Amino acid sequence: MGCQASKKQRKTSRDNRPSLLDGSNDLQKQKLITLETKPEERKSKQPKSLDKNKIVELFQAEHQQIYRNKKFQHDYFITEEKVLINGFQGKIFVVENKVTGLKRIAKIARNVLTNNQINEYLDYLQSLKKIDHPNIIKLFDFYHDDKHIYLVEEYTDGGDLYQRLNTEMHSQEKIHVAYVFQQVLSAINYLHQQDIIHKNITMSGVVIAQKSNLLIKLIGLDDLYNIFQDFNSDISYRAPETFAENYQWNKAADIWSAGIILFELMYGTHPFKDQTRQLTVQNIKRNNIKEDIDLNSINDDAFKLISDMINPDHKMRPNTKECLKYKFFKTIRKSSMKITSALLRIKEFQRKNELRLILLSLMIEYLMSKEERDKIAQTFQKIDINNDGKISKTELYQQYFESSGNENLARQEVDRIFQQLDINKNQFLEFNEFLIASCNKTALFNEENLMNFFNKLDRDHSKQISANELKVFFYNTKLSQSDWQQVIHLGEKKEEMNNKISYEEFISLLTENE
User: Fold this and answer.
1) Distance (Å, whole) CA 382 – CA 387
2) Taking every annotated instance into account, which residue ranges of this chain make up the domain EF-hand (predicted)?
3) How buried is residue 20: exposed, middle or buried, by Cβ count under 10 Å (0-12/13-18/19+)?
C-alpha cells in the first residue's frame, strides 16, 4: 500500500535529524539591536494586563492542535520493517520522532475519504484531545496526503489483554483481575463523564502499559472509516440492542462491552463468539451463552457484576460509577509504593506565570519519556481513591496528612497547591495539571531537550519565538492577535521587549529557580 519506508529512506531520515544549533552569535546580535532601541520606544511596547480567563483555554487539551499541516515524513521515520498489526484498511508501525527520538505508534491507512470527511474526522480527533486520563492512550499528531492518513499516538509495548488472556490473565487471583478491570472501568467512567461514548471497547483495544497498568485505545484502525457508520468494528462485543434498526448509541452499550471483557478475564473464553458472524450476532440477540462454559466456576462477587453488566435489558445495567462500587472490587488495596518524591515536587512547584505553564504542558507532551509518564500515572491512580480520573482536595489532603501527621499543615499545603495548579478552577487536579507539577524538571530541562523544544517552536529558524509561531500549536482559541502578543510578553525581559522570545529568555523562563 506504499506506506512502508525503504531502508535507504530510513537511513536518510536518521542522518537528517536536526542537530543542536549554536545560536550564540545571533542571540548576541539580537541583544545589541535591542539595546540600541530608544527608551521611549521600549516604553511604548510595555504589555497591557492579560485577561487570565482568556488564557485558561490554552491549558484545556482540546485546544492543543492535533493536525500538522505538513508531511508525516517530515516529523517521523519508521524504525523497523516489522508490522505490528495488519488491518483491512491499513497497518500499524513503530515510528520515531526525528527530533526527540521518542517512540510513537503510527496508524497508516489508505486515504479514501472526501475532503468533507477529512474535516469531520479532524474535528472528531480534536474533540478527543480533551481526554486527560492516565488509563487512556494519548493522541499526538494527525497527517494526511493524497494517498494515506496518518494517526500518531502513545507508544505501548506490553501487548494487549487478548494476548494476555491466552497466557496467564484468567488464571490470576481475583484481586489481580479486579485491579486490572478497575482500570478499564475507571477509563470508561471518565469518558462517560465527558459525555463520550466509546462504541468500540474490546479485549484487543486494552493494552498493557507497564506490568498490570492498562491503557484504553480511543481509536482503532477501523474507526478511520467507521466513524461515519457508528459501527463497532468487532461484532462480538456489541450489545444486543445495537443491532436494532435506527439504534442511537448510549452509554449502556459500553457497559455491555466492558462486561464481556470481564467475562473473558474470569472464564478465559468469550460467551457469544461463534464460528460465523451470523451465529455470533444470533447468540448475542438471544443471550445464548456457550453451553460448555461452567458459569459456577467463578466467585459470586464476579458473577454478580458480570450478570448485571451484560443484562439483555440495557435499562437495567448499572452505570460505570455504580459498577465501581460492587463488592468485586473491595479486595483491592491501593499500591503501597512511596509517592514522597511526587508529593515533594508538587509541594515545591511555583506557577510563576501562565506562559511557563503553557510551555511546560507542550514540552511534556513532546518530550516526556514513556517510563516517567507511566510512573506518574501510577502515583496519580494511587491518590485518585474514587477512580474518577481526577484528584479532589480531600484525596490530596489524605496523602499529605499521612505524610506530615499535621492536619492544619496538610490543609494549608493542599489549598496552596490547588491555587497554583487548578488552572481551570474546577476544584480538581486533572492528569495534565498533575504531570506539570510532579514531573522531574531536572531531567526534562536538560540542554538537548531545551534546544530541541525551542527549535520546534521557532518554525522560521530566526532564533526567536513569535506570537504567530506559538499560536499554531493551538486550535480554535478565542485569543485575538493582541492577546497572543500579551502571552509572548510574559516571557520577555522588560528591558528587551520586541514581541519575541529569545533563546536566553526561553531558558530563563523555564529553568529559573529550578
Assistant:
1) 9
2) 371-406, 409-444, 445-480
3) exposed
Indicate if the alpha-carbon torsion angle 283, 288, 292, 294 is positive or negative. Answer: positive
- Is the CATH code 1.10.510.10 the one for domain 161-219+229-329? yes
Which residues in 162-179 are b (16+ Cβ under 10 Å) and which e? Answer: bebbeeebbebeeebbbb
Q: Is 426 helix (H, G, I), strand (E, B) or coil?
A: coil
Can you tell me the distance from the alpha carbon of 22 to that of 2, in angstroms, rounded to the nearest whole number? Answer: 38
Query: What's the CATH class of domain 39-61+338-514?
Result: mainly alpha
pLDDT tens string, the chain, 514 residues long: the values are 444 444 344 344 444 444 333 444 444 444 434 434 444 444 444 445 566 666 666 666 555 677 666 789 988 999 875 555 544 467 888 899 888 888 898 888 888 888 888 888 888 888 777 788 888 888 888 899 888 888 898 888 766 666 665 555 444 455 578 888 999 999 999 999 988 888 889 888 888 776 557 788 776 544 555 554 444 567 899 999 999 988 898 999 999 999 999 999 899 899 999 999 999 999 999 999 999 999 999 999 999 999 999 999 999 999 999 999 999 998 776 554 455 677 788 888 877 788 888 899 889 888 888 888 888 888 898 899 888 889 999 999 998 888 778 889 889 999 999 988 888 788 999 998 899 889 988 889 999 999 999 998 998 999 999 999 998 888 777 788 888 888 898 888 876 778 899 999 999 999 876 6
